[in-house]
Amino acid sequence: MGQAIAFYTLAACILGFGVLVITAKNTVHSVMFLVVNFLFVAGLYVLLGAQFLAVIQVVVYAGGIVVLYLFVVMLVNLKRPPEAHQDRRRRGRLGVTCSLVVLAELVAIAAYKYVSPAAGLPPALPMGPDNVAQVGMLLYTDYLIPFELASMLLLVAMVGAIVLAKRDL
Amino acid sequence: MIDLLVIPLIKIVIVLTGVLITVMYLVLLERKVQAWVQVRLGPMRVGPHGVLQPIADVLKLFVKEDITPVRADKVVFTLAPIIVLVPAIIAFAVIPFGDQVSIFGKPVPLHIADLNVGLLYIVAVASIGIYGIILGGWSSNSKYPLLGALRASAQLISYEVAVTLTFVSVILVSGSLSMVDIVTAQKANGVWFAFVQPLALFIYFVGALAETNRSPFDLPEAEQELVAGFHTEYSGMRFALFFLAEYANMIVVSAVATTLFFGGWLRPFPSVAFLHFLDFVPTWIWFVVKTFLVLYLFLWIRATLPRYRYDQLMRLGWKVLIPLAIANIIVTAAVKVALSD
Amino acid sequence: MVLSAALFIIGVIGVMTRRNIIVILMSIELMLNAVNINLVAFSNLWQNAAGQVFVIFVICVAAAEAAVGLGIILAFYRNKETVNIDEMSLMRW
Lengths: 169, 341, 93
Fold this sequence. Notes:
The complex is a heterotrimer of chains A (169), B (341) and C (93). Chain A has six helices and no strands. With 169 residues, chain A is mainly α. Among the domains of chain A are: 77 residues, Four Helix Bundle (Hemerythrin (Met), subunit A); 39 residues. Chain B is mainly alpha-helical. Chain B has one domain. A two-stranded antiparallel sheet of chain B has the order 1-2. In chain B, helix 1 runs parallel beside helix 10. The model of chain B has no long low-confidence stretch (mean pLDDT 79).
């Protein structure tokens, strides 16, 4: 029961701040709402028993990526007046249409899942309280190749970002 | 049920008051130590030998006029010091202050929470503290604080990487992310991790100096540069909060160093049976003594070393400390694999 | 699951309606987070830790993409002095 209350509060906060992220006029406020959003998502992960992920989310996502966004926002210095009116109305209609399409797609997937039984699941590993050890075990045994690929990807992204942002090349 | 709620609450209250009082007297201690190094006496007037000076400081900051710049973003301006202070204080939730104590016949462990990801929690909390600095600098709506804030946060995120890498090597040796387990591992091994991982200790200490914006890395807030950096426009109570946060950060970092490298609440030489008479000292006193020794090292270095220039600072962090930390991890892992065969 | 779908839709609306490119990138991050929530929820439901491993990879990819994307924005801003996506059409001069 307590879990349900916690879940619904967290969910409401996540959605609420998400809406605030895309509707705030001031970009810095938008970024701040994004940080708060990520913190609530981390709370949700703890509720779902993924403590390692929760902390990683805070460290990498909320503490690293959004700081990057904040830097760029400040370097670009956005104190512009809000966007023009007539474009907004047309854009709004297009946006709502796209999201309705996505919603329809999701409903279709859910319905399909109820019609036909679930396909073969990956081998289940029991998740105990020693969350970190199990994630680590999986990372290094079953999913070793994606792990190495991810590190290559990060290296390439690092080089790319530095090259893009350099002034004199 | 009452154990789940009341005991942690009491512990939280004790830790909070302890931290606040320690921070206040740390300010006084810093001024005294710097004065003695410079062959003078420091604050002497308020109370015997200046002992009541922190109270005078707090009163002064309370009474000062609270100025808000004209076109500053008021909400963010007020929020920024809070965002810096809160992570510094909630980091104390995972630090083990001592072994189990029996109060009224019930064993009470001397830490507020034993997270199984305790060490990562401290890293996470530290990365949230960066926001307060950036937002403080930006919301002041003026050039110097903004530049100071950007510089300070760039410094913080650079050294955060190096510090996290040293945590990895400590985790390799101890085998667990939980702070309580790390102390237990040091007890089981019979030797403090400072002797097992001296390079990690050195890198951690330098990184900690940079993380808390202390000399010799205090360029973002030095008085002679950038007009006191990112908290130029702050006065009165809000400035007090920034100030508090910096010293609380120092204490957190020293406490983490004590737990990771100096054996937490273990007595010196925990494996030598000859010194068993030292067991009569309560464990949390060992912890406090060790933390204060590390804090004294901070103050000592501030009084001694000159300041690093900003580009030298960044070069040190990225080109020297991070490769050293990575090399440390590789060597530690190799030794561990070799020893376990 | 409903939560993650709702968050995803919010992200999509954000991407479509705002013209500030940084907000567009942030909405993409919101969508990625929605996917992550879904993965963790299923990992909890089926008691299978593989979902969490995948989330780590998604966070990795999101970090890489955010860094490169912001690098592109910075390079663009230096040349054209705008972050309005309507004005960023190099192919139509």
